[in-house]
Amino acid sequence: MRISEILIFIVFLVVSLSGCKKNDDTDQTPPTIDISAIDAFPKHCDTLYRGETFTFIATFTDNEGLGSYSLDIHNNFDHHSHTTELQECELWPVQTPINPYFLIEGYEIPNAPQTITTHLEITIPIDIDQGDYHFMIRVVDVNGWQDMKGLSIKIL
Fold this sequence. Notes:
By secondary structure, the protein is mainly beta. It has one helix at residues 2-18, and strands spanning 32-34, 47-48, 53-61, 66-75, 103-108, 115-123, 131-141, 146-155.
């Protein structure tokens, strides 16, 4: 009886393990954000101006399809860091915010393309504090992978 129990266990183990198949089709590649093109804007250390409209231009790419992107612009008056770039930007002295600019917006990317170049117009209000800001860009693919770029900018 002992040998038959061992054989049953071995057969059960072999059947169980042979039924487990690794899925090699799982997406393991996050999307990318490219701001290296000549017309990409803004880039790290760029300056934006109060009361003016600029066009945000960046290229997003993914191997399976893009889902959405978001922008987050907020003050860096206390010199905290989200920067993903190596170059250091010249910072103003630490300042107390009175009326800082703040923008968080999300945008769906319809039809899940593998590559898209954004051309989004953004107007900077005229009555906001001048100074150091962060321009955060996030892109998410259709499988939930994401990439982020943190740029330091100035608003004058």
